[in-house]
Amino acid sequence: MTSKLKIAFATLVLAGSGMVSAQTLLNGSYDVAREFYKDYNAAFIAHYKKTTGKDIKVDQSHAGSSAVARSVADGLDADVVTMNTSTDIDFLASVGVVAKDWSKKFPGNASPTTSTMLFLVRKGNPKGIKDWDDLIKPGIQVIVVNPKTGGNGRYAYLAAWGYAKKKGASDAQAAEFVSKLYKNVPVLGKGGRDATTVFLQRNIGDVLITFESEVLSVNKEFGEGKVDAIYPSISVVAENPVAVVERTVNKKGTAELAKAYLDYLYSEEGQEIAARHALRPRSATVLKKYAATFKPLQLFTVQEMFGSLGEAQKVHFNDGGQFDKIYTVK
Question: pTM for the whole thing?
Answer without folding.
Answer: 0.82
